[in-house]
Amino acid sequence: MLFDSRYSVPLVSINAVIRRPSALLLLPEETRSFAAILKKEIWWFSLIPPSFLFIGTYFFGWRIGAEEPLYFEWPVLLSICIFYYILLFGGLLILSLLSRWMAPTYATTKDLGSHLTVIVTSAAPLFLGSVAHLYPHIIVNSLVFIPMLLWSLWVLYSTLPELLKTDPQRGMLHASSLVGIVMVAGVSLIGMSVVLWTLGIGPNIGV
After folding, report:
1. Is residue 3 part of a domain?
2. Which domain range does residue 78 map to?
3. Which of 34, 101, 169, 189 could cross-link to 112 by cystine, CB 3.0-4.6 Å?
């Protein structure tokens, strides 16, 4: 079943994040396979933040400081949320592929499904924190996402050695490499967004 909490990687990931990371080890191997996660689960798990963003921005608008909220026409807002979804979906897959590529260096398992499970589990706190998008105020979202980011880091460092079957030292180095990749990708994405917006490629926010 798609949403059976006993077999769904995202649902077990959320349970592991809140209660016990070792719950992931109880998942059947076929459930943790790359194909199963990709086919049945990642598509709806990646829908959570864009859905919250669409609802919150459509009804309340984006608030930056004390200024009036910024409202988007729904086609523009929909295009932003679709891009957000593609970014999340693709990001999870690419990061899991990069993690698998680094497996020989850190003596971790080469099973791609296990790498994707680690990435999904580590992203679970941030995806849960996206409920803050329902009230899209930059300060509110920052106050929510900073603790969630720290939570994600804790989950990554605590679950990676067990799930990828390596010792804690190599697991820490592997996790740190993934964090470095995410940081570089984030800064690059911000830079590209600024350049594209300067060239007039992007949503019109009326400023």
Report:
1. no
2. 9-198
3. 34
Asked, for residue 1, whether it belongs to a domain, the answer is: no
Residue 204 lies in a domain: no
How many structural domains is the chain composed of?
1
Q: Residue 45 falls within a domain, yes or no? A: yes
pLDDT digit string, tens, across residues 176-203? 999 999 999 988 888 887 787 777 665 5
Q: What is the pLDDT of residues 97-115, one digit of tens each?
A: 999 999 999 998 888 888 9
